[in-house]
Amino acid sequence: MPAFAQSLPLYSFAPAKINLSLHVCGRRSDGYHDIESLVAFASEGDGLTLVQGEALALEITGPFAFDLQATDDNLIFKAVKALQKYKSNLRLGTFHLEKRLPVSSGIGGGSTDAAAALRLIAQINNIPFSDPDLIRAASETGADVPVCLETQARIMRGIGDHLEAPVQLPRISVLLINPGISVSTPAVFSALGLEKGQQYRSADAMQLPVVIKTQEQLISLLMQTENDLQAPAISQCPKIAKVLNALEALSGCEFARMSGSGATVFGIFDNFDHAESAAASVSAQHPHWWAKPAWLK
C-alpha cells in the first residue's frame, strides 16, 4: 500500500443513542444500578475521523465543541487506553471529533464517540469487532459504550454489560429536543432514592419480537413501558416537563418520552415531514433549544 494511503483519514459516524424505554430494576450492593432498556440509534450524531500517526491525539470542533476538552478524561482517550491494556503496540493517530450532539444530554454522546473511536482503532489494527478485548475495553470505558459498538436496536440489561439480540425496527420518524441543559446522571439516579441492595422492578420483564413491523406496534409496546428516570430527572430539572408538554402538543406527535437520564426528549411522529415542520416550529419559538428531526433504526 502506498505510504500516502495510510495517512488518509478514516471516518466513523457516531449516532445518538435513544433510550426508547428505561426500567431501573434495582440498586446493587456495589452501588451500581441494574437497568433494562430498549435502545435505538438516530440518523443524527457526531462524526469522528482518524489519521494514523505516532501518538494519540484529539481535536474537537463543531457546535458543541466548547463543552468538551481533549483531556485524559475524554471517553475517546479512555476507550483507546482501555484497549491498549489488552492489545500491545496498537497503531494510533489523531482523532478529529465533529461534536454535533449536546453534551450530558441523555443520548449517549460521549459513549457513542468512544465506540466510534474503538471501531476506528480496530480498523487500522485489523481487530475484528467481535474481539472480546474490544468488547472488554468498551465495558471498562462506560456502561453505554458496548451497546454503541454495533449501533443496532436492542435491549440492554445489567449495567450495560448484557446485550440481547438485535431487534429490527421499522423506519421511525422522530424529533429530538434538548433545552440546552446538562443533567447529571449520578444526581438523577440518586434522586430515584434506592438503597444498596434494593429492588425496584422485576428483572428480565421486557420481551420483544425479533422484528417490530410497524410504528403502531412499536408505540403499543412502548406504552407498556416507562423511563423510570424521567420523574427524578424532572425533579432535578423541571424544564424537562415543559419540553415534553410542548412536544406532545405538536401536530403529528404520536408518542413522547425522555431519553436516558435527560434532558433530551424524543417524539415519534406519523411522518418525517411533520417531524421536520415541528423542528422548525420549535426552533422559531425556542431558538436556544436544540431540535433535530431524525430517523431511528
UniProtKB/TrEMBL annotation:
GO function term, MF aspect, one: 4-(cytidine 5'-diphospho)-2-C-methyl-D-erythritol kinase activity
Keyword Nucleotide-binding belongs to the record: yes
Record key words, sorted: ATP-binding, Isoprene biosynthesis, Kinase, Nucleotide-binding, Transferase
Segments forming domain GHMP kinase N-terminal: 74-149
Class of enzymatic activity (EC top level): transferase
Residues noted as binding ATP in the record, renumbered to the chain: P102, V103, S104, S105, G106, I107, G108, G109, G110, S111, T112
Keyword Transferase found: yes
Catalytic residues identified in the record: K17, D144
Family annotation (InterPro entries): GHMP_kinase_C_dom (IPR013750), GHMP_kinase_C_sf (IPR036554), GHMP_kinase_N_dom (IPR006204), IspE (IPR004424), Ribosomal_Su5_D2-typ_SF (IPR020568), Ribsml_uS5_D2-typ_fold_subgr (IPR014721)
Coiled coil: none
Domain of life according to the entry: Bacteria
Residues annotated as domain GHMP kinase C-terminal: 220-286
Family: Belongs to the GHMP kinase family. IspE subfamily.
Protein name: 4-diphosphocytidyl-2-C-methyl-D-erythritol kinase
Annotated source species: Hohaiivirga grylli
Gene: ispE
